[in-house]
Amino acid sequence: MTGWLDGRRALVVGAGSGIGRAVVDAFRAEGARVAVLERDPAKCDTLAAEIPGLPVVAGDATTRAANEEAVAAAVAAFGGLDVLVGCVGMFDFYRGLGELDAESIDDAFDEMFAVNVKSHLHAVKAALPALRTSRGSIILTASTSAYYPGRGGVLYVASKFAVRGLVTALAHELAPNIRVNAVAPGGTLNTDLRGPVSLGLDSRRLGDVPNREAELAARVPLRVALSGDDHAWSYVFLASERSRGITGDVIHPDGGVAVKA
Ligand SMILES: NC(=O)c1ccc[n+]([C@@H]2O[C@H](COP(=O)([O-])OP(=O)(O)OC[C@H]3O[C@@H](n4cnc5c(N)ncnc54)[C@H](O)[C@@H]3O)[C@@H](O)[C@H]2O)c1
Fold this sequence. Notes:
Belongs to the short-chain dehydrogenases/reductases (SDR) family. It comes from Pseudonocardia asaccharolytica DSM 44247 = NBRC 16224. The longest helix is centred in the middle third of the chain and has 30 residues, at 105-134. The chain has one domain (9-259): NAD(P)-binding Rossmann-like Domain (Rossmann fold). Helices cover 41% and strands 13% of the residues. The chain is of the alpha/beta class. The N and C termini lie far apart (36 Å).
């Protein structure tokens, strides 16, 4: 490892599986001290067991209280905070508007946007005082669905476009003290991404699609099927001093979707 994050103090929100968990491991391997906020109690137990001493807050990132508790836990453990990473998310399993019952739209929209968008607002708001002090860095998780149709349904695509909006608005507002960027992964192996309770999709996992690895590789120009471990390097870069001149920007570890014929 290269020690790119030596001395950095980070909070990862949505850290129990998939991309967030890979970010926790990569940040620690690069020398960072990491705290986490995670909703699933079983994942919290696993994190605590596998990483002794890790500050773990069990809570719902869509709430102000959970984010304030997690930031306070990180600051108490490390004496400050340099990096905030947002990795929570839920998927809509490609539902078009035509497939959504009219009576389901209110609850499904509220649930999707609470998890995929509002959680980031609460996390950033809670972390602002500590990040201003440290002149820190925020990294949110977008998706290829923040740029293109077809890799998610109308609610997921709209929510991920909104994450781009957060990055642009917050990078503008928080300069020069805090950098704000995002990672926009393509389809990813070995995650636990699920759907909204309000659409009955909370026990369905995107990763359970048959032949997902071959399907992911076949759909992108580089013919690669990427995992959270691959994406984690983009977060490491954006959290490090190597990216000190970059804000309001997005890294695209997606196998080259933008140059697809
Ligand atoms: N899996 C993919 O193919 C893919 C592709 C592009 C972007 N993404 C995005 O990457 C991010 C991470 O997704 P993933 O695929 O690693 O899924 P994941 O479900 O494995 O990881 C998300 C983590 O966040 C937690 N979480 C969810 N809602 C929460 C809440 N309200 N409060 C606290 N914790 C909560 C989950 O329990 C889980 O541990 C999401 O924003 C997702 O949209 C995923």
